[in-house]
Structure formats: structure tokens, C-alpha cells
Amino acid sequence: MITNELNDKYNNLKNYIKSLGSVIVAFSSGVDSTFLLKTAQDVLNDKVIAVTASSCSFPKRELNEAIEFCKKNNIKHFVIESEELDIDGFKNNPPNRCYLCKKELFTKIKKIAQENNTENIIEGSNLDDNGDYRPGLIAIKELDIKSPLRYAKLSKNDIRLLSKELNLNTYDKPSFACLASRFPYGEMITKEKLQMVERAEQFLLDLGFKQVRVRIHNLMARIEIEETEFEKLIQKHTRDEVVKKFQELGFTYISMDLKGYRTGSMNEVITVLT
Questions:
Q1: Rounded average pLDDT over 209-227
Q2: Which long-range contacts link 66-74 to residues 24+ away (Cβ below 8 Å)?
Q3: Would the pTM count as exceeding 0.85?
Q4: What is the count of structural domains for the chain?
Q5: What are 163-214's pLDDT values in tens digits?
Q6: In this structure, are 196 and 269 located in the same domain?
Q7: Burial, 164: exposed, middle or buried (Cβ in 10 Å; 0-12, 13-18, 19+)?
Q8: How far apart are alpha carbons 87 and 30 in whole angstroms?
Q9: Does residue 45 sit in the same domain as residue 144?
């Protein structure tokens, strides 16, 4: 249900975007950036450009969805190569990994903005992101990237409600984060392990699980799913399928996290590391 308060937030968002004149949207095809891109197009029409970064930490299904959305909605779209593993220090997976990635990505997007005479770059972090360890937001601030959803104080739930109102099929799309977030800080990130994680998560999605994370600890997979789907996973037939597939992918041990899915579970040890 769209309350008066939520409608006011939405109007504040549109007015803010309108004040920017022209924008490039960092577009991942997720819930937040899809809503932001659609709202920007509704407000600014053809003064909107979408940019999506292609890399080994970004699943092909997400890239394809981004391309399809922009084609369907006639939005000018750039797909750029932004290979995080080439960034100095990134593959060592330090606690500020996200800062290194965002700084590299948005530096490239700023160049596209200059080449296309676009005044501002906007990205899709929301109000809920203020409560987690998000070093990428530091890079966003340093590079003067705008965050309209946080400006309008829109939470993830707000965005889902408004997305449904706008007939966006992402309104109930599972939350997603880059595949590098599946590694414990300090564990080396490799292209091979990123592919293992991507294929393992895609397998679980193909089995019908909705919200999944496959956290990788060396060669052990720690599966996070919603508690409501625990019973499905522990059925013998499903367990046998998962074990067989994950071992084929290269995992030695396969486990299920009894706490279930939660965002940023790798950040639960961050106070120890820092």
C-alpha cells in the first residue's frame, strides 16, 4: 500500500532528480537501480544514460537483464569493462575491497559523463545501506556521485512497493550483491572461484530457491537461503543433487548456514579484522 508518507518521499525523489538536469545511472538491473533508472527516465526523458559494468564478479544473467531492460525502455546504455581483479590490491580481498572497486568504476563512469555532456552521476544505494559496513559509499562521496534514494530516505521495502506500483517486475526480485562479497576478507579472490560461486548460485536458483548466497571458504561452500526454504534443501533428493553439482564445480565440502540468508554476513567479523 502506498501511504501518503511514501508518496511524499517519491515526489521528493522525482523533484531531486529533476533538479539534476541530466544523469548517468549506474545500472546493475537490481531492485534499487532499476527503480532509480525508471524514475529518472520518467522525469528526464532522454536526458538519462545507463551504464553497466561487465566483470567476472557480475553474473551474466544480471548483465543480460540490464541490456534487455534498456532495450525495452529505449534507454541509451553503455556496457563497460571494469575488471576488479586488475585493480591493485583487490584480489587480496581487504576490508576496503568495495572502496577500491567503486572508485575504479565511478572514475570510468565520470569519463563517460564528460564525453556525453551529462551533468551528474547517480547510483542506487538506499536508506538501509546506511546501517551496514559499506566502504564503497566513501568512494561515492569522494567522487561526488549522487545517491537520490538515500536523499529521499527510501528504504528497500519502500522501493519494492513503489516498483510494484510502476509495474516493474523487479519489485520482488531477490537482493543481489557482487560475487566478491561471497569471500571472507583476506581470502584471495580468483576468477575460477568467482565462476564456482556464480554457477553454484545459479544452480540453486534453477532448483527454485529464491534468495541465495553461496559463501566460499577456501573450497567449502556455505549455503545461505531463507529459513522458509530450509526443509526443501535438506530433503535427500535435493541434498544429493546439490552435493553432486557443487562437487563437480570444485567444492570439497558443502554446508548450510543455520542462521539462514542475511545481507553482509561476511561483515559480521569486520570488527575483529579492524
A1: 97
A2: 66/27, 66/28, 66/29, 69/27, 69/29, 69/34, 69/37, 70/27, 73/38, 73/41
A3: yes
A4: 2
A5: 999 999 999 999 988 999 999 999 999 999 999 999 999 999 999 999 999 9
A6: yes
A7: middle
A8: 24
A9: yes
